[in-house]
Amino acid sequence: MYSLLILVDSVIQIFIWMLIVSAVLSWLTAFGVVNRYNRVVSVIGDTLYRLTDPVLRPIRGILPNLGGVDVSPIVAILLLTFLRNLVFEFFSGRL
């Protein structure tokens, strides 16, 4: 059971890092630091978008429009951290 707990924690941690990288990459492309027509940047950005958008889309639907500022990754990271802590609390008494 402990191995499953570590696996869930690792998956959540990897997804949090994917959210961070996706947000930073979107800022870099928006400010013109990174060329979005570069094939490597395009593939990485598209892959991160496809992996993170199913989680961020419902959050974007709930949050009000803040005028171009997307805070959905921050909300998702907070929810995932809460979920990870909740799983550890739930299973720590059972191990």
UniProtKB/TrEMBL annotation:
Query: Which is a Gene Ontology cellular component entry for this protein?
Result: membrane
Q: Which residues form a coiled coil?
A: none
**Annotated transmembrane regions:** 12-34, 71-91
Which keywords are on file for this protein? Membrane, Transmembrane, Transmembrane helix
Q: Which InterPro entries match?
A: CCB3/YggT
What the entry lists under Pfam families is as follows: CCB3_YggT
Give the record's family classification.
Answer: Belongs to the YggT family.
Task: Please report the name of this protein according to its UniProt entry.
Answer: YggT family protein
Q: Which organism is it from?
A: Aliidongia dinghuensis
